[in-house]
Amino acid sequence: MRRTTGGRTGGKLLLAAGVLTLVNNYLPGSDHLDLAVLNTVALVAVSLGGICLVVPWDRLPLRAPLLVLVAALALLSVSGVYGGVGAYSYAVYYVVVFVWVGLTQPPGTSLWVAPSASFAYLLPFLVDSSPPETAIGSVTVAIPVCVLVGEVLSRSVSRLEDSRLALTARAEHEEAVVDALADGVLVLDARGRVRSCNAVAAGLLGTARDQLVGTVPPLEVGPPGIALHHSVGAHWVETVATELEATGERVVVLRDISRQRALDEAKDLFLATTSHELRTPLTAIKGYVHVLERRWDVIDEDRRRQALATIADRTDALVALTDHLLLGARAGASRHSGDARPFPLVEGLEATVRGFEGVSERHRLVLDAPDEPLVGLGDPSSVHHVVTQLLENAVKYSPDGGTVTVSVRREQGFAAVEVTDEGIGVPEGDEESLFTPFFQAGATNTREYGGVGLGLYIVRQLVEAQGGNVRAQNRPGGGAVVRFTVPLSAQPPCPRAGDLTALAGPRRS
User: Is 121 left (phi over 0), alpha (psi -120 to 50) or beta?
Assistant: First the structure.
């Protein structure tokens, strides 16, 4: 229901009328008036006006202020009957009343108020023994004029209110649309100060909206259509401005390009690292092929075999690297088969660990598994890739050797598999970054340990594709622990031909 504050306006009018009546009572030429009656009316008007100012009109219905109208008509009648107010002065007061009705009440109110106002207008003349000859005539003119004034004002105010509400609704809609944008938006006035902004822009600039409005934005805005890149706190922000010729304002779009920039940097690092990883075996292959081609008849049989073994070894490294890159591409594009079926998890882990025995003389591999059978639900080849990658990392990042432990435990419908080593551990703060593509744990490690930074990214993709999760943390006393989960199946395993054979294939470190 619509509410009104019109009673407050009526209270102000009553106060003003009361004060003006008191002043008028003591002006020259007021000797014909009944001052006692008019002073009483004035004081009542002032009192009612004061009461109206403290009434909570906004909590009352729209028509509630008409009580003020009743009081005003009653005071006018009393002053007309006993105060000796002239007919034409009397009419002026009614115009004021209807102006108030027009400003505070809906259209049509003046029409059904007219009879009451006419009665109040004529009452003093009806009880007068000798009413003025113009009394009846004046009411036929004064009241219609008052109604006309009230209706014109009421309809004008109603149209203005409808227009205001429409503009407000449109502004709120546009603000909601702008706030829903993924990009930040700033509107700058002709002086370059922020006139308005959305929540995304304030968030990218690291401040509150109310603090940003009215200030110069804390980054440079280029000419219209020119994109500029800025570092703002932890974000990289691109700004593009558009000028509004009619007002001289500029609309600036802010886009968070942190991820794009990180991917570009990762791509550059990937290309540099991959070229290095490819060049190393290719250089060895090319060197030995050149030696065999030029000196085949000179070198002895043992050196030939050694050269061919090195070529074969480096070729295997290239094939493994290529397979790694292809697996990373498939995982990143979510094109892995995701072949989910029951399989013997513990037996698969045993086969994978057994395939790593003898890979490094400095490391001892241990499998810690329960006696109960655990039936995993997923793709056994994916689990094999995951465990293989984690074992390779464990061996690679524990150059001084030590024990690498693969443990598995049942946990609420999942099997939790942990690969623990005694190596260099996880860099502080990089526990999540380890699983992003092309991540390298520091420049020194990149040079010393090699790799293209896809291993743990592939691990996460393969694990999450099967409904599990993976995380890494430091091991108390040194080393790292990488933990991933595999859903368990209530159905017995249905191994396919070659499953365990594939899991047991030897790997190179």
Answer: alpha
User: What token pair was written down for 442?
Assistant: 């520091």
- 């020119």: which residue's tokens? 226
74 and 223 housed in the same domain:
no
Among 335, 341, 437, 458, which Cα is nearest to 390's? 458
Contacts of 198 (CB under 8 A, 6+ apart): 175, 178, 179, 181, 184, 185, 209
Last residue of a domain, which of 256, 278, 300? 256
Residue range 392-434, pLDDT digits in tens: 889 888 888 899 999 999 998 899 999 999 998 888 888 888 8
Asked whether residue 250 falls in the same domain as residue 133, the answer is no
Sheet holding 249-256, edge to edge: 194-197, 184-188, 249-256, 235-244, 228-232
**Total number of domains in the chain:** 4
Report yes or no on 508 lying in a domain.
no
The 10s digit of each residue's pLDDT in 146-160 is 889 989 998 998 899
Q: Which of 180, 173, 197, 208 is nearest to 250 (CA)?
A: 197
Residues 353 and 321 both lie in one domain: no
Q: Which structural domain, as residue segments, surrounds residue 289?
A: 260-332
Other CB atoms closer than 10 Å to residue 128's CB: what's the count? 12
Tell how many helices (H) and how many strands (E) occur in the chain.
15, 12
Does 155 lie in the same domain as 19?
yes
Please indicate, yes or no, whether residues 104 and 223 belong to a single structural domain of this protein.
Answer: no
**Token pair for 498:** 């070659």
* Cα gap 400→104, rounded to integer Å: 88
Domain end, chosen from 136, 155, 172, is at: 172
